[in-house]
Amino acid sequence: MARNYLNGVPATTLAADVAALTGTDTWTVADGTGYPAVPFAAKCQSEVVEVTAKSGTNNVTWTVTRAFDGTAGVAHAS
Questions:
Q1: In 1-78, which ranges are E strands?
Q2: Of 9, 22, 41, 48, whose CB has the highest number of CB atoms within 10 Å?
């Protein structure tokens, strides 16, 4: 069954490039307001991540589990 990620949630961008990897990582996003309570799945290009924690002003710091839901942990440009 296909999943629909971020339906009705505002888009944001990465504040810095992220390297290709799997496991737990910390991402800084431009604006993290309007997202649901953790945990939730988010899609960045072809990769799905599970956001397991949010912190900082406007929830801009996300702790994510990379390569979630069978996707590959690929590099992303900000």
A1: 23-28, 40-44, 47-55, 61-66
A2: 48
Strand-by-strand arrangement of the 47-55 sheet = 23-28, 61-66, 47-55, 40-44
CB 23 within 8 A of CB 2: no
- Cβ 6 vs Cβ 43: under 8 Å: yes
d(CA 26, CA 28): 7
**Per the omega criterion (within 30 degrees of 0), is the bond before 39 cis?**
yes
**The overall pTM is greater than 0.85:** yes
Confidence category of residue 2, pLDDT binned at 50, 70, 90: low
pLDDT tens readout for residues 26-36: 999 999 998 88
